[in-house]
User: Which sequence fits this backbone?
């Protein structure tokens, strides 16, 4: 992940709860993301899913003993 992506994701993590609350308050079912935010998320999701899959497989193998 590039420094720019990390910066965008950290800022999004801080802002997202307030943005979600504002959307709910206004009766909206979605939150608008900037292009940079969407691209940063798109770059992280596959890696996070792979890490999650590996953790699940590891947990299952550990429980089979």
Assistant:
């Amino acid at each position: 992940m590039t420094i720019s992506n990390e910066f965008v994701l950290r800022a999004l993590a801080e802002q997202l709860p307030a943005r979600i609350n504002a959307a709910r308050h206004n009766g909206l079912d979605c939150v608008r993301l900037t292009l940079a935010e969407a691209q940063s998320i798109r770059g992280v999701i596959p890696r996070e899913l792979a890490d999650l899959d590996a953790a699940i497989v590891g947990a299952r193998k550990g429980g089979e003993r």
Q: What stands out?
A: The two ends are 37 Å apart (CA to CA). The mean pLDDT is 88. Residues 35-63 form the longest helix (29 residues).
